[in-house]
Amino acid sequence: MSEAGAGLVEQAQDTLAQALGSARAAENRELASRVREAGDRFVRILSGTLGMSKIHDLRNRAFDSPVHELEGSLRSLYELLGPVHLVLVEDQVYVNDIRIRFGPHSDFGARLCEQWNRHRVGGLFFHRPLNANQVRGLIACVAGDPDPERPRTRLQGWLAEAGVESVQLEPLYRFRTAYEGDRRLTADAATAFETSARAVGAVWDDLASGRSLNALPVRKAMTDVADMTAEARDREMADVAHDTTRTPMTRHTVQVATLALLIGRELGLSDQALSDLGVCAGLHDAGYFVRHHGEPASFELHASAGARLMLVQRGFHEARVRRMLALLEHHHPCNSVPRPSLFARILKIADDYDTLTRHRPGGALMLPTAAIERMYAARGGLYDRHLLQLFVNRVGAYPPGSLLALTDGRWVVVISGARSEATFDRPLCLVVRTADGRKPPIEVEVDLAREALFLRVLRADEVLEAAAE
Predict the structure, then answer these.
(1) Where in the chain is the domain with CATH 2.30.30?
(2) Which of 76-80, 111-115, 173-177 is predicted with the least confidence, judged by mean pLDDT?
(3) For the domain with range 189-395, which CATH number is right: 1.10.3210.10, 2.60.120.10, 1.10.760.10, 3.40.50.2300?
(4) From residue 375, how far is each of 212, 217, 332, 368, 463 by CA, in Å?
């Protein structure tokens, strides 16, 4: 094609992109307006019906009209959005990420939050609309006295007993203060990782049981992981690398998310973009849980199956498109045509690295250093050169989780990435085996940037032999 022809094609593509952008923006505004209108109606009826339950028995005919209205308003939202996600945080209410505004002097938001917060519930995910009997069951359960020890868990049980199994309750949320937004979490890193593992596991359970995809708990958990200091994240990466307590899929997902966020932060992504990247990473293998002719999706089909999960969610916004592309393209080589999206290229590196180094019972083990060498040889082809270099620069010569033998006979596990150029091959380590072959009685750190101890990488057969002991 001539240069003039190529220029015309590029101009046409730009024009089409602008037209699509305008159409999508208009669609977003129209959808948001309709959701706010339907959401306002739903929230007012829900709050009013709960208030009536303090005065009248639910069998009273006075409830017939509000129950019918509540059923209809939820169905209207479902027709607009698919599964409906109601978030109640402090005195504000959101429906599928769209804030419902009640006016400056209205207390509907505060009243509804109070009605649910007493059960320690901060969000509801409606997988399907409710019929009139289920609406009555929902109101009856919430109107009851909360369990003093496990209010949310008990309420979820009451709902199941009342036949309202399509409503999933979520824990309390709160807004982050400006101070919290500026600091990075140094404590409770293990809790952040455990929360992310639980959130991911809940998504797999929901999908495996045929329920709808609910990404908000994953987003919240991944935001906490992204907020940790580099030191805390490295330490937990090392622990997750050798973790055998979680299911292989959950462990893999948490580690891929951690690695992807590491690359994203090195790239300089904003906090919002990091949060979106964490959700993409947390859901990147969701397609495996989609049934195809009664069977789980295969490796070849799981990427497209995951993208379809994004497509069936109604509404349109940029984050959803990023998720869809990331799930669809995360196994595509960097030099594919068209080029994979940024998040997909990041996930390709994180996913392949963890797959290569993953511990498998009775299976082959590739050491982190060998995995880095193999991936580095494929830069520019399988992997984005720039992103892979950022990854290598950050994890260092011996990535977190690497096992090293020191010249004094001790074995150590690496718990830091490259802290500076000078310490690229001198990580912080934790002793896992003393010189006489025993497990150390107390935790002992070794900073190889300060202690002149020569080291070598443990061979794969040594690692497997030690794991079997």
Answers:
(1) 396-469
(2) 173-177
(3) 1.10.3210.10
(4) 36, 32, 14, 11, 21
